[in-house]
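Researcher: Let's walk through a ligand-bound prediction step by step. First, I give you the protein sequence. Second, the SMILES string for zinc ion. Third, you return the three-dimensional complex as structure tokens. Ready?
Model: Ready.
Researcher: Here are steps one and two:
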Amino acid sequence: MKSYRWTCNSCHAPNEPTDSHCMKCGCSATASAEEIEEHQKPEKYRRNKSVHNSKKSLMPLMFSPYFLAIYIYNGHFESMLFFLLFVMLCVFSNIKLLMFIAKDKPAVLTLTTLSTLLLTVIIIRLYLIPDSESGVGWGLMAYFGVATAALIYIAKNKHLNLLLERFYAKS
Ligand SMILES: [Zn+2]
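Model: Step three, the predicted complex:
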């Protein structure tokens, strides 16, 4: 409760100090920016959140060839098995989304290209640059550069965003 008359952050209606929620639209007096957005455009907010979450669940899959290469190189086959199980679980729990994406050629091309790029960088680093050489530092930087670029690309990619929005509008 506020001790003064307050203006709703969502609809700008004036409210009494005793009101904990806006009398006009019901938005909380202490709503955060995110809560206001949710209150104003619940549909859009929920869809954006779903798109964001689905990208998060796709990430391990995109990075999986990269991790598998590291496990194989280091001979950590037990870790590799656990990782494969984890990947299978990811595939299984996102099967509808993956099938939906699989039908869209540009999206598949984008994701597999990024995944292959990450794999290529780590293979070059593991097999072509000896551990003792100064190239290791550069290899690491190249890797982080590619990984960061891939994450930004996925976050900003309009085609992918629209595709995922369509998926959630449908389901
Ligand atoms: Zn209001």
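Researcher: And what stands out?
Model: The chain has a mean pLDDT of 88. The beta strands are 6-7, 14-15.
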